[in-house]
Amino acid sequence: MSRAAPLRPTLLSIASATPPLSLTQEEMYEGLLKHWYKDLPNAERMIKNTGVRRRHFAWDPREELKDGNKGLSERVRVFERVGLEITSQSVEKALGTLDRSKVGAFTMTTNSGYSGPGLDLFTAKKLGLKSNIRRTFVGHMGCFAAFPVLRTAMDSISARPDEYVIANASEYSSLQFRNDADSEQAVIMGLFGDAACSLVMGSAPEGEGVQFLRSHTEQLYETNELMGWHMYTDGFKMTLSPYVPFVLAEHIDAFLEKLLGPEKLGKADIKHWLIHPGGPKILEAIARQLKLDKSAMRASWHVLSEYGNCGCVTALLVLEEALKTDKPQRGEYGVMMGFGPGLTVEGMLVRF
Prior knowledge:
By secondary structure, the protein is of the alpha/beta class. 36% of the residues lie in helices and 28% in strands. Strands 1-7-6-4-5 form a 5-stranded mixed beta sheet, with helices on both faces. A 4-stranded mixed beta sheet has the order 8-13-12-11, sandwiched between helices. α10 packs across α11.
């Protein structure tokens, strides 16, 4: 008697949404950052060297922050209003014509604002999802937070293979922009943008569809001071050390051995490198270490240019862009990677 193929967590759909306001890097610099960093040498060069051509914004920082920082409460009120609009757009697009009655779980992450009930509940309510949907919110983990969301979705599908799971990452970093006049903040203000991206996942027999095979996580405990995200009365503040790319490059090979080894795969088996574009130096350092040419991470470079670093959303935007433009062939392997405070390195092995 032949056995049925094992079921795998499988991507059914993916869709992103962005706020309607889109500014080029030049418009953002001339409209606000030039004023903020007028006394900072080389500020314009540092901002233009981020590799970002255009970004989307949940509010217009040129107007909202022209007179200085706003209080945290003002920022969070905008997050609640605008965040619901953009997050729900993303989820609704991903659901499309799928049977919403089969959605049993909704897992979501954001780093750019907090409220209770959160955007996940109000999105579920707005879209008419059933009232007994299981919600999991992943907060304050930084740019790698989409990976815990994906793992939670994978676990849910494994436990209940007949259900669908929504996995969402939403980031509205511009709502936490600050006018601290130093080179670290100038780079950060030149990098980050706003977006939401949602996946609907279900189960399918092995080899049918885009499937998430396994994940791996590493906390580099001795480097926790290199990246952070902290609350103040006048908003959140990020720290980002220029040493981050070097640390990531140093650990990338060992990390990939742990991610790929259990599947008896190596770097040569990976066709698609879907790397979180935390900034150009991160992409360059990883490409150098793995001996990849720029085309191997085309989707990452495209997202950096056209969206900026959208925090926890960015890895999902890279996946969406790769599926849309690169059109991976059935059976090809891809590696998704994200990085954040800890330093924490997250990876996901995908088979297309």
